[in-house]
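As promised in the previous annual report, we have extended the structural survey to additional targets. Below is the entry for Sarcosine oxidase subunit delta.
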Amino acid sequence: EEEFHASGQAHIPRPLDPNACTDAEWGDYMFFRDNPRGLHHELWNHVAGCRQFFNATRNTVTYEILETYLIGTKPQFTEQAAPLTT
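The corresponding structure token record, generated without further manual editing, is:
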């Protein structure tokens, strides 16, 4: 059993009025996610512990976790402020 589980891309805003969305807009919200090479902000769950959700910034090339932060807050690391790797 894994202690942590990745739950997909972070910072996906839910449509304000889902009933007003077209099928294409709802499909985009439900199914289409970024899959970048490099920094990616992800939603994670501590499934074998406190069961809390949190965000993490992870490098998808090296699998390095650069930071974790609370949902609703902004990440410290972005593409513009990425740490240098060698």
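Residues 5-69 form a domain with the Folate-binding fold fold (CATH 3.30.2270.10). Residues 23-31 form the longest helix (9 residues). These points will be discussed at the next consortium meeting with the crystallography subgroup.
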